[in-house]
Design a protein that fits this description.
Elements lengths: L5 H30 L9
């Protein structure tokens, strides 16, 4: 790799980290929703 590309590499890793973090948060929320009894779930 050329030294000029390190900024783009860092940005790509940061973007991937943010995206995976958001997806992980969504999965944890979904898991909590599935664990609650149907009577306690909100109108979904």
């Amino acid at each position: 790799m050329m030294p000029d590309n390190w900024g783009y590499v860092a940005a790509a890793y940061a973007l991937a980290l943010v995206m995976f973090g958001g997806y992980w948060r969504r999965l944890r929320t979904r898991e909590r929703q599935l664990r609650t009894p149907p009577s306690r779930r909100r109108g979904r």
